Amino acid sequence: MEASGGGDMPVSVGAGERRMKMKVMVAVDESDCSFHALKWALDNVLNNMTTTATPDENIEDGGGMVFLVHVEPAFHPAVYPIGTSALYPASASLEDLMRKAQREKSTSTLSRALQMCRDNQIKAESIILTGDAREMICQAADQMHVDLLIMGSRGLGMLKRTFLGSVSDYCAHHAKTPILIVKPPEDKEHKKKK
Amino acid sequence: MATSSDSEKKQVMVIGIDDSEHSVYAINWTLDHFFAKNPSFKLVLVHARPSATSAVGFAGPVYAGAAEVLPIVDSDLKKIAARVLENAKQICIKNNITDVVVEAVEGDPRNVLCEAVEKYHASVLVVGSHGYGALKRAVLGSVSDYCAHHAHCSVMIVKKPKTKH
After folding, report:
1. Transmembrane ranges (chain B) (predicted)?
2. Number of structural domains found in chain B
């Protein structure tokens, strides 16, 4: 049982086992920022656990676990740019095609992420969700009771001026689990703006 | 900084602390999860102490007795700051962490924390989700929100769970 509670000291001694098994969720999309966040997580959050034991031991004990979550937008027929139903009498097949393409993209993103975890000898599982990224990520993190939700600060929105994208901002406010927002490494662009 | 660190330079983690239980929870959570064994981070705890004038300013711009109240308010704030720092040090000791910098800086927490990040070249800033003004309706405190947007490093917001599960 976890002895969390009020303002007094939660269990900090003798909880060695609990510390070892950190359950982390990393939200990934196709952006470099989110892969940078994953890399940062693997290097700094999860690798901590593997320094004191052999790799084999850890993989069996579950020295750390990563849930990679990717959210696909839900498709609605109204969104399709091609309006002429005469050319596509069965709108269902167009929807299927788009879903298939979307699914391929998601799978390839997640494979890349899974490979990174494997390269770092960290156990990982991937999850594909459909819907509004903001809500789905928060829900997934809460429902799975992860110790920490990690995500990049900016995703596919290309506004370089903003430090915090809308999904990260929403999750910072609404996720019930602790959340780590990883900022991208400083690049020339940032330096120019200063 | 004469510490016996490994050949690689350690990254710095700054935790913003105040007098609230959210803050205590955040410190404990962070130490449990990041500083248990062979911590790869150097720890810095920063407390932003509001200045006496800003604390009294809430009473309104025209407050005749302000000059008399200021020293009292100031000494209260100093006491609170000392207590916050002492608590923080105790938590570190309990977790066997000796390589830690603890400091109180006067000013607005938003600026103090962002400046601390610059000063220590921190790679992570940790804040609780709420501080003094723990409005029940607010899902994220204003300082945490500001830091998430403006700090030049990664930001970790540690949320205290409302109920046990």
Report:
1. none
2. 1
Residue numbers in A near B21 (CB within 8 A): 6-7
> Which of B153, B157, B160 best tests the A interface by mutation, with the highest count of A CBs <10 A?
B157
CB pairs under 8 A between A and B: 101
List the domain range (segments joined by +) for residue B63.
Answer: 11-158
pLDDT digits (tens, 9 = 90+) for B61-118: 556 666 778 888 889 889 999 999 999 999 999 999 988 999 999 999 999 999 999 9
Residue B165 lies in a domain: no
Residue B51, Cβ density class (10 Å: 0-12 exposed, 13-18 middle, ≥19 buried):
middle
Categorize the per-residue pLDDT at A103 as very low, low, confident or very high, splitting at 50, 70 and 90: very high
CB B93 within 8 A of CB B130: no
A41 close to A98: Cβ distance less than 8 angstroms: no
Burial of A79: CB neighbours in 10 Å, binned 0-12, 13-18, 19+: exposed
Write the CATH number for B127. 3.40.50.620
Please give the Cα distance from B3 to B131 (Å, whole number): 32
Task: From chain A, pick out residues whose CB is under 8 angstroms from the CB of B137.
Answer: none
In a domain, B3, yes or no: no
| Phi (first) and psi of residue A35, to 5 degrees | -70, -35
Residues with Cβ within 8 Å of A180's Cβ and at least 6 positions away in sequence, in order, are A41, A45, A148, A149, A150, A151, B124, B154, B155, B156, B157
For the record, the structure tokens of B134 come out as 């723990």
